[in-house]
Every structure is written in C-alpha cells, then in structure tokens.
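Budget justification note: compute hours in this period were largely spent on complex prediction jobs such as the one shown. Inputs:
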Amino acid sequence: MRNLTQTICSLILLAAAFAANAVVPTPAPPQGEPIALVGAIIHVGDGTVIGDGVITFDEGVITAVGSTADGIDTGGHLVIDVQGSHIYPGLVLPNTTLGLLEIGNIRATNDVVEEGDINASVRSAIAYNTDSELIPATRFNGILTAQVTPEGGMISGLSSIFMLDAWNWEDAALRLDDGQHMHWPGFKRNRRNPDTGRFERVDNDDYAAQVEVLHALFRDAVSYTGEPLNLNLAAMQGLFDGSGKLFLHADGAREIISGVRFARSYGVRNIVLVGGAEALQVKDLLLAESIPVIYERIHALPGMEWHDVDAPFKMPFLLQEAGLEVGIGGGDTALNRQRNLPFYAGTAAAYGFDREAALGLITLSNARILGVDDRVGSLEPGKDATLFISIGDALDMRTSQVLGAYIQGRDIDLFGTQQELYERFREKYSNRVE
Amino acid sequence: MSSRLLACLAAMLVSWPAPAQENLTPNGIADERAGAYAFRNANIHQPDAGMLSGGTLLIREGRIVEISEADEIPNGYFAIDLEGKFIYPGLIDIYTDYGVPELEREEDVNGGAENLVPDDRARNVNDAIRADFRAAAAFAPDEEARQSYRERGFTTVLSLRPDGIARGTSALITLGDERAAEAIVVADAAAHYSLDKGTSIQAMPTSLMGSFALLRQTFMDAEWFGAQEPRPFTDATLEAWNGTRDLPQIMEVDNWQEALTVDGMGDDFGVQYVLKTAGDSYRRVEEIAATGAGLIVPLDFPEAPEVADPLDAEEVSFEALKHWELAPFNPRLLAEQGIDFSLTGAGAGDDFWPNLRKAVSNGLPAETAIAALTTVPAETLGVSDLVGRLAPGALANFLVTSGELLDEDTVLLESWIQGNRYVINPGRQENAGRYELALDGQTRVLEIAFDGADPEATLDPDGDSSSANIKLVDDLITLDFAWDDDGNRIRLTGWSDAGGWRGNALTPAGESLSWQLSRVGDAAGEEAADEAAAVAELPSPVLYPFSAYGRTELPRARDFVVRGATVWTNEDEGTLVTDVLVRDGLIEAVGDGLDAGGAAEIDGSGKHLTPGIIDEHSHIALFNINETQTNSSMVEMNDVVDSENINIYRNAAGGVTAAQLLHGSANPIGGQSAIVKMRWGEPARGLLIEDAAPFIKFALGENVKRSTNPASVRFPQTRMGVEQVFVNAFSQAREYGRAWDEYNDLSASQQRQTPPPRRDLVHEAMLDVLNGDLYVTSHSYVQSEINMLMHVAEQFDFNINTFTHILEGYKVADKMAQHGAGGSTFSDWWGYKWEVRYAIPYNAALMQQAGVVVAINSDDAEMARRLNQEAAKAVKYGNVSEVDALKMVTLNPAMLMHLDDRMGSIRAGKDADLVLWSDHPLSVYAVAETTWIEGAPFYDREEDMALREAIAAERARIIASITNRGDRGE
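Corresponding output:
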C-alpha cells in the first residue's frame, strides 16, 4: 500500500530525475493493474459526497465507488491509502485555446484564428499540441479534460475534446469535432474616439450584412446535397441531424436572442450558449429553448458601474436559480489563467452555491453540456477513471494541493517545468544563511 | 511677434482704437456718416442690472454717446421710438472659433512608428505648444456663421483656434458686416491653453499627465529663454508664451477634476487661469469655488440617454442618468456658490436659448444669466469699457427685444453692432389680435397669434375653427384658406392699412374679390397667467463621488471595538482571537477584554480581522496610464487620479485600503506614482496618502523595447539599449546637478550676471532618485535585466527599492536580497509573452526563501479585489505559511512602500485600516464584510445592499422621468 508520504516522495524523486531538462512530462503508460484509492472524501460531481470512500478502477474505467463500509472488493488491486484527502472527477475546461496557443504575443505560436468569416470546416484537433507547456500547468490544478476551440470570424470551426495527457492529438482525443462554433455579430462595436482617445460603443453598421452572410451559409447548408462538394457546407451537417452541437458565442442580450432565434429557424437542434454575460436578461428564452450556458465571466468586473460589485461572482448561481443548466468556461480569460478554473467554481460557491453544486459546474455540468458525460464529469462506475486527489478542498486556493491525477486510469505525471524550476531554485537557496 | 510688441498691444487696450479702417480707398466717393440715432421710450438695461424705463439711448459713429431719462433728442439724431420694447447690451460668447480656420491633422505616414521630433520650424520643441498662433491673423469673416450668432443675440465673440495645449491668442470680434480689420476690436484678447494636444502628430504627450508635465516644463523653458540676451536659439513660440503672459489666461478642461488640478498647477507658476469648464462643475462646487478661478460654462446640456428599451437602459450608466437630470442645474449651483462665470453657447447650437431658459427656470437668477453673457465675459477679458454694458463710450452693440430678455415669449427683434442695425425678427407680433374679415359680402372672425416669430391665423375661432396660412412681410400680407366645400382655397394678398390690412383675393374659380381685415381686439385666451415660475428644486442630491455607490455624505471615522474576531496582527502576537479598539482613526489597543469607553461594539466572533490589503501595483482610478517619451520621469500620476472611478469602491469591497497607482511600462523610465487610500468620495487630493514616500516607475524588457509594434523606431529596441538609457539618464542628471550647484555657489552679484541653468523636470526626477528622495519600483521580468538594473543602481550609488512583476526574480533572488530590493509579483501570471515563459507561481515563495521582502500585487482592477486569494496561492505553490502569505498583501507591500510605520499590521498607533472577513482571509469563500480606512467604513456589505436598492430605485425614477417626457413629445 502506498500512502501520501510515498506519493510526495515520488514527486521529489521525479524532480531529481527531470532536473536536467525542461520538457513536458512523459505521457503516462496505460493502467497496468486495478487500482483502489481508499480513505478519501469522494466528491462524485453530481452533488453527492462520500466520506471515507473507496474508488476502484481497472483498464481505465471506474469499477466501483462507495464508502469503506460498502465492502467494495479491492482484492488484486494496487491499494493506495489516501486517507483524509479529497478525490474529484477531473475538471472539464470548455472553450479553451489550450494547445493552440503558446505565447500570446508571438504570432508563430498562435494557431487560434484562421483567416476569414466562415471557417466551418477547420478543425482544432489537428493543431492541438500535446507538448504545450501550458498543459502541465493547467492539469496541475485538476483540469484533465478540455474542449479545444478555434476562435475568430463568425463561424470559427470545429472544436474537439481532449484528455490532457497523450503522445499526440490522435491519442489525446476524447471526442473529435464535437461542435461548431458561431460568434454572433454584435449590434454594437467598440470604437476608439479619435478626439478623446477612449473607446466607446457605437452601432455596428455592418451588422445586417454580417447576419446575411450567416443566413446564406445556413440556407445553403440546410439544402446541401453534396454536389458540388463544399467543405464548409459539409462541416455544418451535424447541426441539422442532431449529431453535432452549435456553440453560440454571445454575451449581449440582443445578440443572444438573435443568435438563438436564428439557429432555431434553421432547425439547429443542440445549441449551447457560450459567454452569456447578459444571459440572465434573456433567461426566459433560454429556458423555453432548453439552452445551457457556459458562463465565462466570473472573475470579471461588473459590466456597468451601477451593477452589484459581486454581480459576476454570483451570476452562475442566478442563472441556475432561473432554471438554466450552467457550466463555467475559460474563453473569456487569458489562457494562462484558465488553470484557475477550480477557483472560479470556488467563487461561485462563495456567492450562492453550496460547494458540491459549485464543483458540479466544472465537472458534470460541463461534461453534460459538451456531451461527454458518458465518459467524464462524475465518478461513477463505467465512466473513465479520470480523477484527481487533493489534500484539501480543491476549489479553494488556500487548500488545493493536487497530489495525483489519473486520466483513464493512467497515473499521470504532474511534475511540469514549473515544478522542476521550483525544485531547482529551492535547492539553490536552501543553504541560505539567515 | 516680439514680446515688446505684444506688451505695446496690451498697453493699447486702454484707449480703444476707432474701428474704421480709414486708410482703405473706397471704390467710389466718400460715404462717411455719423450714424446718430436716438432710441426713445425704451426700457434700457443698466450696467447695475437695473432697468431704466422710458429712457433714451444715443449712439453715434458706432459708439454709445449717452443714456438718459430725458426724452430729448439732440439735433442731428434720428429718433427711433421703442415704446414698450427693451434694450439690452449685446450678448458676448466668450468661447467660439468663429472665422478661425481649423487645422487638419496630418496623415500618419510612418506606418505606426512614433513621431518623436517636432516640425522642423523655429518653434517649440513640442508641436502642441502653439503660443505664437494669433486668431486675429488667421481670422476671415464668415457671413453665415455671424448671422447665426446674431440670431441668437450675440453681437461680439471671442474667437480662438481650439487646437493644441498652448493655443495662442484669441481675438475679440464683433459680428456685424464690418471688414475683418474693423470687426476685430481686440486683436490679442486672451491667451488660450488646454490639456489636449489637438492635431499635433508628435507622439508626446500621449497622456493627460504628459500634458501637465509639458505645461510645467514650458513655463520653465520660457522663463529661462526669456532671461537670455541674445537668445540661445530662435523659438517664436517661447517668445509668444512670454509675450502673452499679461493677457487673461484661459484654460479649457474636460471635467471638474482637471479644473482642480490645473488650477493647482497654475498656482505653482503664478497664473490664475480662467477655466473653460465642461458643464459638470456642479459635482464639486465648493472645491471649484475655492480655486478662485473665473469660469466659462457651457450651456450644452446632455441629451436624454436612450432608455426606452430596457436592454438599452441596461447599458446607460448611473452617472449618465444623474448627469442628464442635474446638468441643467449646473449654472444655478455655481451661482449659489458666488462663482463668477460666463456662459457660452459653445456646443449648444440651436439649444442655446432653450437651455438658457431652462437654466433660469432651474433657479439661475435671470440677472446672473444676463451678466454671464454680458458684463462677466467683458470683465474677464478686461474690455468692460468696450462691450457688455450700455454705457457712454462703449461700442453701440445692443439688442432690442419685445420683452424682458429671458421671458419665455420674448422675441429678439434687432441687434445693433457698431451702430449698424441687423433685423433678427421683423417684429410683427404687434399684429397679434382679433380681426374682422370683410370678404364677399360676409364678415368672419380671424385671429392672428404668434409662435415665436411665426404668425398663425385661425378662422372662425368661436365656431368651426380652421386654420389659414398666413405670411407677414413688411407691410404685406398673404393669406389662404379653404373656400368651397371641396376645400379649394381662396388666396388673399394685401397691404397694411389703419390697424389692419386690405387687398384683393382670387377665388378657386379665379374670380377677383376685394377684402379688408380690421382689428377688433386682442385674441382670446392670450392672457396666460404670467406668475413667477417657482424655482425648481434639485430633483435629487449630488453624490460623492458622482457615481453609482456614491453617497451624499462621506463615511466618518468612528470609535469602535471589534470583539472576538480572529485577529491577524502581523506582529509578534501572531494570529489570535482577541479584541481591537479603534479611536480617532487609529488602532488604540489590541487585547482581551478591552475597555471600549463607549465606542461602538462590533461582534467579530467567527470572523477574521486583518490589516487592510495594500496593492503595490495598480492602475485603477487613473485617466491615463502611459506617456511615450523614453524617459518620462517628469510626469506625475497625481495629476490624473480619477476619484470618480468605480474601481475604488470595488477595491474597497475586496478589502483593499491602499494602493500605488503606477505609470505604465511603455518606457524604461516612467512617471511618478500616486499613492492612495480608497477613500471613495474624496476628490483626488483627498485620496492621496499624505507624506507617502514618493515613487517612480521604471520598466525593462519587451514593453519598453516596443516588441509588439514592429514599426517602432523609438530608442531603445533592445535590452542593451535599455541599460544605456539608464546610464545616460543618471549621468546627465549628475551633470545637471553639478551645473546647479555651481550656479548656487555663485555670489549674489555673480548670479545677477549669469543666467541660471535651464530647469529640467526629467533631470530633476533623476536627481531625486540619485539622492534617495524618489524610490524606484521597476517593472521587470527576466533575470538578465534585473541583474543589470541593480548594477546600474550600484554604479550610481542608490538602491532599487522594488522590482515589480519580477517573474524571474526567483532566478536572482539571492542577488536581490543582497542589493536590498524587494519583489512585488503576481501570484500565477505567466505565458502571455515570451519574457514570462518561465514565470512560475513559486516565485513568491522562492524570493521569500532567499530573503527578499515579497509582495503580491494585482496590476488589474478585477484581481485587486481578490488579492487575499492571490496571497493564498503562495501557500498552494511553495508552502508559504498562512501568516506570511497574508503579509504579502498587507505588511510587505507596506514595507516596500515605506508605509509600514502606519499600515500593514494591527498594532496600537497604526492607522485603523482594517478588514472584517466572513471567513478565513486567504479562502476563496471569504467575503469582506466591512473595510475601514482610518476608522471610517468606506465599504460595508450591509450598506452596500442598501445602496444597491437605492440605485435601482433612483434609476427607475430617472428613467421614468425620461420616458414620460418622451410621451409628451418634448
């Protein structure tokens, strides 16, 4: 039986092993034997908590979840004592450019935005860089699944959902080409006033023309027969037969209404609202159309000077209270800050939710909204063994200490470049004379 | 123009020249006339604001000769009877660009490269300093514009070119049909300034603080320049700057905050500006009055915000709603403070009169309003003998009106300018009344009324009333109205005749008839009750600040004791459950069972009390962040603190009590910091921490070498150049210091013969750094440059106080500790540019391990309100103790900012800057319940909840008053 101390020791040993080079950790090998994690507080992801829990998994799939009192058979398992720590489903990060972008202001490292307004056929999947240095830092906080999403234009292309540990994009894929992303044009746009130098909101004079471009695309896509071949129209077909989702990116109330009405008028079945800063103002429409919201502006300033100072903090709660399905995404925040996803949920817990429900926002809700809740999002038998262990409450930066993580049962290496540099310089300064 | 010539001009103002351009050769025979007129029986507005009834006004050769009660017309005067009419001095608009051509901004031909050098002309080193411009020399009369001004009652305007920071002189110009040489009655009437560089394409200044710094430096340059004979070089601008100092100095500002700051700057240089304000002065009338400045106040009240659709209303700020409601009270509130101000139609256009009347109905005394358009602008410009009053010797510039000037129904009839008449309105109003129309053997009743200047006719007003089209021109009348059952119209034309008109008509069939209109009395229903309109009450109070979450009164320091909270003292006592007593804004005692002596009791049980959070690196509440010049040490963020910025309140709501508001990182040497407390509601000066140690921002790396602008040409473009910028700046500053030392060592008589060195604000700031009077906080990322800057400092024998951001500080933390530099870092930012690729969240822990004083800062208005959580990440990444982690956002930044004698810990004698948290202060679940600054609760969650409701109610009320008004079609 391994215990916590051993786990920590292994981290330090790894430090020594990797001290010589700064490359991302080696992807973990497939699960070799059945594993049982014993004694932890298990946060299932669906709102329930199991004290003194046991979770077993084999060949990458969860085989049992319960408390030690349930008599779960751990015979033949590698039993790891994680007494007193917390086990969570891997956190799910929707709408991120992880793996598409390395250094924000260096164009060569940026594969986020393709040229043009309509790029229905472009696929983030093939640009997803499993060796991005941002990935180890992101999963260090328990984020193990991400929807990697292209941006730009009005139709940005197809996202894919990845496991954050793999040798290449193909192996990393949890769901390829899971959805199409549409950015509804704004009724207004920002313009810099040449006199004052300040940005101001002015009418978007191109709005009608932009919407007409979308109309033309959807008209032609709905009636597309395959002849002549058109990659853009072909890539749209999943929206109409229900096999694909339309992720509607919109923040303003009017844009949300227009985008939803537009998509429905062409028979798009599955719509997810992404952004949704003003979703609360149009909750009746979203409710009537059963459209879930990936809210992205939690750690954000209130939109107007007169809004409640905590308006963004409590918005996920208010949306859920209104009856909507809510998840939390990363797209509105800089990529390098999205590792704070668990703390976004922590804030939601400080402003309305109970902690398990807040956890659900970034686990089961996100998984359900993305359509991968059959595999991830909660700790249930039959789902992937994609989970992590934290010494304390993982939603609170004060207590979050992620000790270990498994993706499909593979014991992944959390020790990234940042940890390596930490060890290197901790060692350097350890002989300092006070 | 030489200063001597301008001085001459100034002297000439005392004896006004006759405007006639007598050396002009006429194309014809001489046509000189006396233009002698006597206006009899008029109500004449007196300079003391009284009204002389039935008086006589004599004018001759374009001047007023006499005003008397006697109805005696001297020989040679043509008498004009103004029975029942009024004469007012012609209005003056003291802020126009009439007849002065605009400058056009040059195209950017450099593809985004900075324009660092001025035009190659013998003018100022900054193209926004245009003191040598003279509106008089550029002026060309504009027929259309002057007619439009006349129609609004103006007879004289001050014309300037509103472009640039020093804008040169304006001209006082009359609005008659004179030639330019005669219309300009004072060629250099005032010198003008602003804080806006206008069409100058020179990069500097890009910021408001840069404008302030440029003005200060120009004062110094001009003084130095003017003291030298011969001049060291040719600069027409500095000559003109010096030559126009005796003129009225008019400064245009964008808001009341700029007004206060620029007035303070003027005091430093012995200038009292007249302030052209922006119509928001009502928000701080007491502070504005205290400047002692005369004001020029616009009458362009805001249009109602779009609120009809709730989605639109959502995007309208609370401030905009309140401004819409209160701006029309601005003139009244200024008048109530006894502030001398002129009104200007600038920006109001056709709304000038409606807005003027609205201001009066909102409580601006009518006489104050008239003075603000006549005597006050004249006095401001020192031309009271010439315009603004009806007095002998003054220009014959006046208005003839049908009634008292500001009455709703009064019509401007004529304006007289330099003795010439311009009819504004032909004044047919006397034709209003009830008439009998004799036509085709019948007699019908016709009523004529006026809507302003326009006549309206109603036929058969007592029966089936119908309207008739009417036109009155001179003695002619034109009428038409429905004649037969099909509505075909009969057309009448005629001429005035004994109390009515007569003439001919053509029926629809073409039959010719004659007709007569005879006056039989006044029109019915004309006797509108003319009660003195009740002075409108302010619809709602002014808030401090003028924003959502503003208050009518600022929170006051209270004496209180917090009992039983977990107190994070940051002192040897550590973290313990005890009591904290606050008195007179200070922490009086920490301990169990304190005798509070009647102070308010606050139950802290289950809660946590910490020192207020201090943010070492913030950019909230600033009008601008960056100036452009490589060494911008001359700019001061104190000049651009925006006390009305909502992020002050939001920061307080996150437990932040103090912050350093830094210049940006666009330049190796940035500006000087503003160090503030979040005293939401105080004007900028009240936010500044008294006697705080001064700081200056340095910056290194990608930003200062303009990495994201491929077109940039500004030195430096590499880290190598950055080092040289510093070495150069400090070397030059040393030379500067030496030059001044040598000058100061001269005897008094030697000094009289030696011009002093030129003062230079850049060098002075650098010298302050060298002397340890100005501390450095330097934006920095990678280890090489951090090391470099410490070496430069050591070479010049001073210390880098703080490295801020310092994301690779962990790589050279031992060297930093040895140098004595602190590190103020982000908890976990990284990866957003190349130089932060190896930024790690363990940085704070590692620097602390190496002996560096570590703070965690925000650099972000949003994150600032969660700095307690950012501190918690030092626990997560690097196992810093919780006490040490909290210190990273309280005591340590206080130490780095040299404020730890007053802030950063809970100890008797320190400022009572405290936060009561609902939970463990490092937890994501903790909410700041109350934030005290020096004992005053500047944020309190309970009050906050009440304010939210009040804001919602107030918004609803104002929006209703806008939409109701819409229904009435006003």
